[in-house]
C-alpha cells in the first residue's frame, strides 16, 4: 500500500469516526471500534514514516 493510499484511508476513517461519534456518542461501541481502526492505520503510517526517516 502506498503512503498516499494510507493517508486517504486515514482521512476516510477519521471522517467516519466523527460521524459515528456525533450520531451515537463518543463512548459507543461503534465509535470505539472506529477509533481503534483509526489507531491501527495511524500506527501503520507511523511505522512506514519512521522507516523512511531512518533510511535517509
UniProtKB/TrEMBL annotation:
Pfam families, per database record: SpoOE-like
A GO MF term: protein dimerization activity
GO BP, one annotated term: regulation of sporulation
Gene3D superfamilies per the UniProt record, alphabetical: Helix-loop-helix DNA-binding domain
InterPro entries with a match to the protein in the record: HLH_DNA-bd_sf, Spo0E-like, Spo0E-like_sf
Name recorded for this polypeptide: Aspartyl-phosphate phosphatase Spo0E family protein
The species this protein was found in: Cytobacillus praedii
Amino acid at each position: 500500500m502506498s503512503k498516499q493510499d494510507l493517508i486517504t484511508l486515514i482521512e476516510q476513517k477519521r471522517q467516519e469516526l466523527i460521524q459515528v461519534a456525533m450520531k451515537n456518542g463518543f463512548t459507543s461501541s461503534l465509535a470505539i471500534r472506529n477509533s481503534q481502526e483509526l489507531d491501527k492505520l495511524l500506527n501503520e503510517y507511523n511505522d512506514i514514516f519512521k522507516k523512511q526517516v531512518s533510511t535517509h
